């Protein structure tokens, strides 16, 4: 059952891997990597690559990370580059933004994005808006990362999805990875990006293993921010999703396939800038669209996607 | 008139007021040496700030400057004194009453005034306005009260991280001094020994609320608790300079942050929309102007020690006035930024992109 699940989640890659094995080709050196380990690899590689990169947040150093994402990093890089902060989000987020303004490349971890609300002024007013207000004089190369959205029974205050809130603001890039490859490639791109990036992970995905291709295992594996990925091809209905809900979509697609309905599952990967083109192209093909997300429906990610489709040049052609 | 260098006293020593100390054994020296060159330079810079702010007042009333405009006249000794205590390679960040600092940190009157009038020749191309002016190692101009304090500590963290022996001066007002994020910053700056000078410019009023009505403890220099502090006369440019030098030395020697409270005063209201007399008396403003004006204080010192002549200072006044007039002329006639600049500068180092407009057929363009 576990292998079937991972087969479904890996989609196309797994199918081609199986086919290649049957025809006695050279087996690809793919491995199973959890999202947590992929993030850890990305952090390690970027810390090694650029001296100016450092990580700060609650419990990131000696505790190895509240969710063990930064495991081993403090032992390797020490106090200077992996900094444990007191429980003062507004303060340390501001300090991280200031450090970015002065030439460093901080990664600011929020234990969950619910706590980022305490620091949201620093993310929006100090980080996102500054390059614009200074007319290009002051860039802010910072990454804010941490788990976003619902977890397992952690109650209302710890379960909010912030994709829509951060996705609203110009000056920010907002990324929401699903698989291990997404996590690694997008986090590396986010760290190398010279702009403020909000990187929304998901706690329940941390422990999920995915197949990671040989290409993805390389130290220079980057995924472009702002481009969605088609996880599963289909002709009948488009399912658009991000983060953990992509798994849900793929599971649903598997169930529907038995009834002869082929779903096209799009993994958004990035919330802002939104890859409206990919979704439009798919909807032109299938003429049916469902958005699936972990956030509330009003003023949300799905609402924005629907608005874009309806405003799109090809909407009326669908009829 | 013809006077030669030999006619004037080249330098003199002045007694300055003792600072109130908190968790410090010793404070800054009780005397300051001022050379003739320094005196003339401080005078010119303070007078430039004063006249620039008064010109901004005039342009605002003519509706050539609009939006927010928070004027700094009365507080000139703070900006000038601080800058003389540090180097241009050090860093500084302040709140929204920032025109004076933009000047001392390397901005020109021309680009400051053009920014106030929102023209393309402005220091931020007309897109920042009064509260968002930046120069090298000067991080603004910040609109959200108190938010600049953690930012300043972050800059100090970068200084320590990069090991460049630079420090960050982080300013805030008496109103901001009660903000929680400032105490969070005190904690981290002290824990990590960040080279940060926290400076509270106490001008007695946070907008319209006097310090007694806003703070349970108005000893702002003690509010850092475990951080050593100094309280001093912010109207005396020499006092400010000596204290800043003392504080900079403290930071550079690796002892961690230090806090300074400058007791100062603003002649204008909180901003141009505030006449500034509903919460304080005209008599109070007049008293400070006549007894403690920073420019008059420096002028009196120099004249009574034969370090400059009345004519010489008048000549500086005339030059300053001309500079301000020229700048105001530029600021009034320079064109506004072009409409296609609207969406530029959203992202740095990114390829040009399209920005969603108000309808599907209007796409706006954005370049880095």
TrEMBL record, chain A:
Reactions catalysed according to its record: N(6)-[(R)-lipoyl]-L-lysyl-[protein] + pyruvate + H(+) = N(6)-[(R)-S(8)-acetyldihydrolipoyl]-L-lysyl-[protein] + CO2
Biological process terms in GO annotation: glucose metabolic process; pyruvate decarboxylation to acetyl-CoA
Coiled-coil region list: none
GO molecular function: pyruvate dehydrogenase (acetyl-transferring) activity
Signal peptide: none
Domain of life: Eukaryota
UniProt KW Membrane keyword: no
InterPro entries: PDHB_mito-type, THDP-binding, Transketo_C/PFOR_II, Transketolase-like_Pyr-bd, Transketolase_C
Location of the Transketolase-like pyrimidine-binding domain: 33-208
Subunit structure comment from the entry: Heterotetramer of two PDHA1 and two PDHB subunits. The heterotetramer interacts with DLAT, and is part of the multimeric pyruvate dehydrogenase complex that contains multiple copies of pyruvate dehydrogenase (E1), dihydrolipoamide acetyltransferase (DLAT, E2) and lipoamide dehydrogenase (DLD, E3). These subunits are bound to an inner core composed of about 48 DLAT and 12 PDHX molecules. Interacts with DLAT.
Its biological purpose: The pyruvate dehydrogenase complex catalyzes the overall conversion of pyruvate to acetyl-CoA and CO(2), and thereby links the glycolytic pathway to the tricarboxylic cycle.
Name of the molecule in the record: Pyruvate dehydrogenase E1 component subunit beta
Source taxonomy: Eukaryota, Metazoa, Chordata, Craniata, Vertebrata
Automatic annotation (TrEMBL), chain B:
Localization per record: Mitochondrion matrix
Top-level division of the source organism's lineage: Eukaryota
Biological process terms in GO annotation: glucose metabolic process; pyruvate decarboxylation to acetyl-CoA
Enzyme Commission number(s): 1.2.4.1
Annotated catalysed reactions: N(6)-[(R)-lipoyl]-L-lysyl-[protein] + pyruvate + H(+) = N(6)-[(R)-S(8)-acetyldihydrolipoyl]-L-lysyl-[protein] + CO2
Enzyme class, first EC level, given as a word: oxidoreductase
Main function: The pyruvate dehydrogenase complex catalyzes the overall conversion of pyruvate to acetyl-CoA and CO(2), and thereby links the glycolytic pathway to the tricarboxylic cycle.
Descriptive protein name: Pyruvate dehydrogenase E1 component subunit alpha
């Amino acid at each position: 059952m576990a292998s079937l699940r991972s087969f479904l989640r890996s989609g196309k890659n797994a199918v081609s891997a199986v086919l290649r094995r049957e025809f006695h080709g050279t087996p690809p050196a793919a491995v199973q990597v959890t999202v947590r380990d992929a993030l850890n690899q990305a952090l390690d590689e970027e810390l090694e690559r650029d001296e100016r990169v450092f990580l700060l947040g609650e419990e990131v150093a000696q505790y190895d990370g509240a969710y063990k994402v930064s495991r081993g990093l403090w032992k390797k890089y020490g106090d200077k580059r992996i900094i444990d902060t007191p429980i003062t989000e507004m303060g340390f987020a501001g300090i991280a933004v200031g450090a970015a303004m002065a030439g460093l490349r901080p990664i600011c971890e929020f234990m969950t994005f619910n706590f980022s609300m305490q620091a949201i002024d620093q993310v929006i007013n100090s980080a996102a808006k500054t390059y614009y207000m200074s007319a290009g004089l002051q860039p802010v190369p910072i990454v804010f990362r941490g788990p976003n959205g619902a977890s397992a029974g952690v109650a209302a205050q710890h379960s909010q999805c912030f994709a829509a809130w951060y996705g609203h603001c110009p000056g920010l890039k907002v990324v929401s990875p699903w698989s291990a490859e997404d996590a690694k490639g997008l986090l590396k791109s986010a760290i190398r990006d010279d702009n403020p990036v909000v990187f929304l992970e998901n706690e329940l995905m941390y422990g999920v293993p995915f197949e990671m291709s040989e290409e993805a295992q390389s130290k220079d594996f980057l995924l472009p921010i702002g481009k969605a990925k088609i996880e599963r091809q289909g002709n009948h209905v488009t399912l658009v999703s991000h983060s953990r809900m992509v798994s849900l979509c793929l599971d649903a697609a598997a169930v529907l396939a038995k009834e002869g309905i082929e779903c096209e599952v799009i993994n958004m990967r990035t919330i802002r800038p939104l890859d409206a083109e990919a979704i439009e192209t798919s909807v032109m093909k299938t003429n049916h669209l469902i958005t699936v997300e972990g956030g509330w429906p009003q003023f949300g990610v799905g609402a924005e996607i629907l608005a874009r489709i309806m405003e799109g040049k090809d909407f009326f052609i669908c009829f | 008139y013809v006077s030669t260098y030999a006619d004037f006293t080249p330098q003199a020593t002045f007694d300055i007021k003792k600072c109130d100390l908190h968790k410090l054994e010793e404070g800054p020296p009780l005397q300051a040496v001022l050379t003739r060159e320094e005196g003339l330079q401080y005078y010119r810079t303070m007078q430039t700030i004063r006249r620039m702010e008064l010109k901004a007042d005039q342009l605002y009333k003519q509706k050539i400057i609009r939006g927010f405009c928070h004027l700094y006249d009365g507080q000139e000794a703070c900006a000038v004194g601080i800058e003389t205590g540090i180097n241009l390679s050090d860093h500084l960040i302040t709140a929204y009453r920032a025109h004076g600092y933009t000047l001392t940190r390397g901005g020109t009157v021309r680009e400051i005034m053009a920014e106030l009038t929102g023209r393309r020749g402005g220091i931020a191309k007309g897109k920042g306005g009064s509260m968002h002016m930046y120069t090298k190692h000067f991080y603004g101009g910040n609109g959200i009260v108190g938010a600049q304090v953690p930012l300043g500590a972050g800059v100090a963290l970068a200084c320590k991280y990069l090991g460049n022996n630079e420090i960050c001066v982080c300013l805030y007002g008496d109103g901001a001094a009660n903000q929680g994020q400032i105490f969070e910053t005190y904690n981290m700056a002290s824990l990590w020994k960040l080279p940060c000078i926290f400076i509270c410019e106490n001008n007695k009023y946070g907008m319209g609320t006097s310090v007694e009505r806003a703070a349970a403890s108005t000893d702002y220099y003690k509010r850092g608790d475990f951080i050593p502090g100094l309280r001093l006369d912010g109207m005396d440019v020499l006092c400010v300079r000596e204290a800043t030098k003392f504080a900079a030395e403290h930071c550079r020697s690796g002892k961690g942050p230090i806090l300074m409270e400058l007791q100062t005063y603003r002649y204008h209201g909180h901003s141009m929309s505030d006449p500034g007399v509903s919460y304080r008396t005209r008599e109070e403003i007049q008293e400070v102007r006549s007894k403690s004006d920073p420019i008059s204080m420096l002028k009196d010192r120099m004249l009574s020690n034969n370090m400059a002549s009345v004519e010489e200072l008048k000549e500086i006044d005339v030059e300053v006035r001309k500079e301000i007039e020229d700048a105001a002329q530029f600021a009034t006639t320079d064109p506004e930024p072009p409409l296609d600049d609207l969406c530029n500068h959203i992202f740095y180092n990114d390829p040009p992109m399209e920005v969603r407009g108000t309808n599907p057929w209007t796409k706006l363009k954005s370049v880095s």
